[in-house]
Specification:
Elements: E1 5-9, H1 15-26, E2 29-35, E3 40-46, E4 53-60, E5 78-83, H2 88-105, E6 111-115, E7 119-125, E8 129-132, H3 144-147
Amino acid sequence: MADSDEIFLAWEGSLEDAAGRVAEVLGLEFNGDLRVETGELQYKGRARTFDEIIGFYVGPNVFQPEPDEVQAMDRYPVVVDVQARNRKPAQAEEARLAFELLVGALGDVPAILSHNVELLVAAYLPGRGTHTFEPGTTLDDPDLDTWRPWVA
């Protein structure tokens, strides 16, 4: 199973503008590489919970539901993949801290935090604030009634 942590943003501008703003807010350095196969822009930054560099990949939301399904991140065109490859146990906390910084700085941009593109950890809506979900809440149809009030 994958071990990833993602922040989805309901960004209305270009991917490049979103990536630039994410990098500015999180204090990231451009890694000088575009992943052509995914369209992701690669950044690196100092971890907040340990003294090492971690990766941030800002790209288009390519996660699409099956026909006739709905997912919480459907209306979020930008995804920030947070990768602490050498410290996987700290990765979820690093993603949570990045999420908090982003929603604090981008107050007009809805955002969601997920784990493994399966579990919904938290969601932020302008004017409503941040909601943390019960462990095990999925991004998928079975939990639609739980997350619908909290996603764009």
